[in-house]
Description:
The protein has 15 helices and no strands. By secondary structure, the protein is mainly α. It is about 70% helix and about 0% strand. It has one domain (about 1-325). Helix 12 crosses helix 15 (about 300-325). The longest helix has 27 residues, at about 1-30. The radius of gyration is 20 Å and the shape is globular.
Amino acid sequence: MNILCWFSLIGMGFMICYLFFDSANLYDKDQGGIGLNSRKQFRIPFFVMSLMSVYLFYPLTRSFNLGQIQTLISCMTAAALIAWSKDRKELAGFLVGLCCSIKPQYAVLLFWAAFRKEWKFSISLLITASVLQVVSILEYGFHNVIGYIDVLKFIGRSGESFFANQSVNGLMNRLLFNGNNLVWIGNSFPPYHPAVYYSSVITSVVILGAALFWRMRQKPQLLDMALIFLSVTIASPIAWEHHYGILLPIFAVLFPAAIARRPFGKWTEAYLLTSYFLVSQKLESFTDQFANTYLNFLQSYLFFGALMVLVLLYRLLSVETRIAKASA
């Protein structure tokens, strides 16, 4: 797995560089970008910077240190974004279908695409995920599929208080001091708490509902796909730190777009950098001192940074909608 993780991180470096320049060139065409289209001499130095950013982005390095397959999922997510940007919808669907075999909640993208009549993507995703599911059943038996559903129900009901769970569920468990939030105990979960459960369910429905139905009648852009990827992650009852490795390729798309459109005016750069800092750094040595106080919400700094990115995506897409209407 470590060899696969190494290749995934190196590949991520190439894809971060590609996504950034592709996004920058798109907005340069509108003469509102950051002027990289005519500066090809910067591509090699920027690739080196992209590779460095991969190894300095905490969620990715965390998944690598754990030997986690999430490293590969983050890499395939970046590849799916590139495929979508190049109008290779079948390839994008295939890649997301592969992700679904490991991370079933990515199946939400099937409905997202179907609602927007992106049939090439939807069919490719459905076929890929279905074939892999059949192979899984033949290899491990149908009882394991049913067993996995039971596991998901249990996880959704209790969640996880450990600080690495960067979700509404984790935030609420910690605020209510429901479980150990400093030490990872593999065979122990916090007791069921109705406030935790219902707040998790309600926020998940709101986050996913907004991502699924907003701009449903408009042709989805790359930013739309980034939004649904992030929404699926944030809405999960357990979203470990390393699950947010998908944010680095999203930032590669976001930076040029945000600088060109300036959705928060003069505060855009500060907003971007603050959100990037929160999701890319390991701050637990500072935040853990508040674990047993009512300030333990500070342990959810990565979650708050991810929410900032989600808000930025909505703001950017709102600006794009206004520009499209004005030019129509």
